[in-house]
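Fold this: Serpentine Receptor, class E (Epsilon)
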Amino acid sequence: MTHHICYLVILNLFFLIIPIWFLSIGFKNQGKCENPLLPLWLIFVGILIIIDRIIYWKILFNKVKKLMEDVPQDGRKKNWFENFWWISIKYALEGVMLIAVALGAIWSYEQLGRPIYLCKSSVLFSVSGFCIIASITYIVSLIGTIYIFCMNCKAKFDRKVTMWLYSYIL
């Protein structure tokens, strides 16, 4: 159990370092790049990551709080609606992050072919590196989601075939 807590703390420290890095580079290079959108992109994504982590901890806190509460006599859990809204906001935020990653990839790719005069290479490499890692993560997540969907459909199909065979045989 303690290794899960250590993993959670280390992962969240990592997710704290990235937005601080993005915010510092974005503010230092604002107005200094050929493409003025790259530093603004870093600032925007840094803020999105911080908001995402705050919502993550809020959802986790609500789950722990619900586990600590007594289950009512009728067996229903209290306050399920509160986490529903936080999770909905988190999904919307992830959609905005996906659009931001696509825009950052396009803007940094346009900049890669040109010589960098004013903008520091840390801006370009931060944007393009984050976009590459995020794109790989989104692709793996999409493949996993498709796999889970296909396995769910297969399980439903297997149940229907089994029921059909039982009804045919009996």
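Residues 2-67+81-169 form one domain. The chain is about 85% helix and 0% strand.
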